[in-house]
User: What shape does this take?
Amino acid sequence: MPKRKPNIIIIGAGIAGIASALRLRKQGFEVDIYEKNDYTGGKIHAFQDKQYRFDLGPSLFTLPHLVTELIELHGKNPETYFNYSKQNETCRYFWEDAIKFTAPADPDDFVKSASSIFDEDEQNISHYLKNTKDKYELTADLFLKNSLHQPENFLNKKALRAVVNIQKLDLTKSLHEHNKASFKNPKLVQLFDRYATYNGSSPYKTPGIMSMIPYLEMYDGTFLPEKGMHDISQSLTKLAKDVGIKIHLNQAVDEIIFDQKTAKAVRVNSEIHKANFIISNMDIYQSYQTILKKAKKPKLNLKQEGSSSALIFYWGINKEFKDLGIHNILFSEDYKKEFDHIFNQKAFYEDPTVYINITSKIIETDAPENCENWFVMINAPADGKILSEEMIHKIRQQIISKINRVLKTDIEKYIEIEHCLTPKDIEKQTSSHQGSLYGMASHGKFSSFLRHANFTSQIKNLYFCGGSVHPGGGIPLCLLSAQIVSDLIQNNNDN
Assistant: This one.
């Protein structure tokens, strides 16, 4: 008789859970995914209200090859599952003194345009961008594509090269200090400080190595799926079903069962399902609080400061705004105070930075003719509190006032559809601790090493993927966590 293929249970059908399943299925494993919601995708979700379509979660898409390679891995044509377009600009930036800057996607064009708008030397900007590229290339293989928690991953030439060049990584200064030393114009400093929010951190606390984050936009580009961000998860869900992965919706895992320090099964609605390997795609904090109650908690990991959350308004706008693009930032007048409020005071700042995402600029069916679908977000503290209706109304008015001042409009009269998503809603829907979008914040020079590993030495055959564990939050890093986990399991099974 042929040897029975090992089976794997994945808890959570977020993007990392689905990607892990696809990689492991290709390796020959039988895979079941248990998802508590009635949909797949986790934070990558969407909804429709009349003729307006809104992506609920992430709005920025980089490194699309991490998606298409999963399709190619199974011998399929990516174009039959998933299509996207590259954008010719990354973001439009606005300040209250009427300064505007549309950031070209091409690095050379960015340098020329930014030099003109901010009166900064072209060579200076070019040097900064090259520095982001150098940092990324020095550290990507070591920090992003492999487990940081296995000593053998540091015994190679790439690791040695990173150590030799450690002074170039700016670990001893904050991102803001690095940017302030790099540019004379405070607006350009603020523009590059903003990239700390890509992993839910403060530019005044996250280390200067995070200046490598712009690399993905500047050198690889930003993209938009033809059917919206939601199609990232849905195309991979379709592929998963096509290749024999079983997805069980409305099936919340109550407990991971382990014996003799080895994961053996999960309990779902009083039923026990055995597995050779188990992967949790749940938020790591929630994993230990709910489905791993009997396990010893990694106190150092769970004590780390959480990333920021978000307060989001979804507006159907019955007007077109020509000055806006797909991605738009209306900056706060005092960035330092804003982040002090979010991370130190656990409060909302009265003059928030407002992000507006409008996919109908490209996907015409996302809104009625001559209308736009606005995804309006501000960074929020992750503290688990329920915002009162009065507080939401107050913050909403601050956002509207900001938009009106910067865009010289009266936006409220154009809002014909409105929905709101609070940090508490995010926590409830995605099991993210206190609504944190990226697990832990990347504060401190050793933050990468303090993020929970993709495995635990306490329990064999148990693994973790997703934005709350190594290598971090955001779509690309979640997909890379799936790659790390699948490699770990393959090596474990071979041995």
About this structure: The mean pLDDT is 92. DSSP finds 16 helices and 19 strands in the chain.
